Amino acid sequence: MRPRHLPLLIPILFALALSACGGGEDADVSGAEPSGGGLQAESAGDGGLAHIHGLGVSEDTLFIATHTGLWVAPEGQTNARRFGSSQQDIMGFSVLREGRFIGSGHPDPTRDLPPNLGLIESRDAGKSWRGISLGGEADFHVLESSGPRVYGFDGTQSRLMVSSDGGRSWEQRRPPAAMFSLAIDPASSQRVVTSTERGLFSSEDAGKSFRPLVVRQELAGLLAWPAEDRLFLVDGSGQVKRSSDGGAQWQPVGSIDGQPAAFIAHGDDLYAALANGSVKRSSDGGKSWTVRAKP
Q: Which domains does the chain have, with CATH numbers?
């Protein structure tokens, strides 16, 4: 399976260099009232749950970031519902801790904002969002954090950005290639593994330098690293692999039976979004999968 077989993993906007329009930091970017949000039925004209960009779990609720806003599926419920009224395109979605999220992407079409939101943050579990940095300058298609350290791959300029203060200031790094995914070693936020259009690479110094990770450089996909000895990858055909040595060697463990759109770990569980808008969960290390949420 070569990178050209991973169309959903290649950010559509790689080739577009959207100009910076300035502004946006610490401004409301969601268009939703801070006290609003909440579960609501799909509205008339709403395209439904599709084009999933990211997943997260907070207080036992599954949050699904999409091209047209945020969706949720509380524990015990499989039918996902829209969360709030904002239609912003949420890219690079990540849950930092209970109730606090970060993301990127593009504004609600009804809002007069720069086309690229930079780094945005929600402190109320997705009800409202505010710009943190790089408003109008960056569109993070890959966004991962560990404590105050944040890694973001900016699709507008194919650059890796690294922050050590929660995303308020950044240092630019040179990635080995266009990135599909990045995972942070749970034992050290300095060490990362990234999946790129040229295969897997690792860094021991917070992205200052990279080296090829495996001999089979055609290996690529989406990554999740829940424990030091458990690094997971789901490839473009949905095959799930596990590495116990930080990505040097891989063993097949199962399949999600479809092409992945997003992939995360939360506690002992793995979550994978599929191109059809469904989300599956595995509680046995990727061996078997059940539907956690569906349109």
A: 3-219 (2.120.10.30)
Tokens linked to 58: 């907070």
What value does the mean pLDDT take over residues 152-173?
A: 96
Q: Residues 192-225, buried b or exposed e (16+ Cβ, 10 A)? A: bbbbbbebbbbbeebbeebeebbeeeebbbbbbb
Please report the DSSP string for 80-136 in residue order. Answer: -EEESS---EEEEEEEEETTEEEEEEE--TTS---S---EEEESSTTS--EEEE-TT
Strand partners for 131: 25, 120
Amino acid 93: pLDDT = 93
Measure the CA–CA gap between 278 and 78, rounded to whole angstroms. 9
What is the sign, positive or negative, of the torsion defined by CA atoms of 30, 65, 11, 94? positive
List pLDDT tens digits, range 34-80. Answer: 333 333 334 333 556 778 999 999 999 999 999 989 999 999 999 99
Cβ-count burial 70-109 (b if 16+ within 10 Å, e if not): bbbbeeeeeebbbbbbbbbbbbbbbbbeeeebbbbbbbbe
Cα separation of 41 and 92, whole Å? Answer: 25
Sign of CA dihedral 47, 275, 167, 96: positive
Bridge partners for 57 per DSSP: 62
User: How far lies 276's CA from each of 7, 27, 48, 174, 202, in Å?
Assistant: 14, 34, 11, 34, 31
Average pLDDT rounded to a whole number, residues 139-156: 94
pLDDT value, residue 14: 31
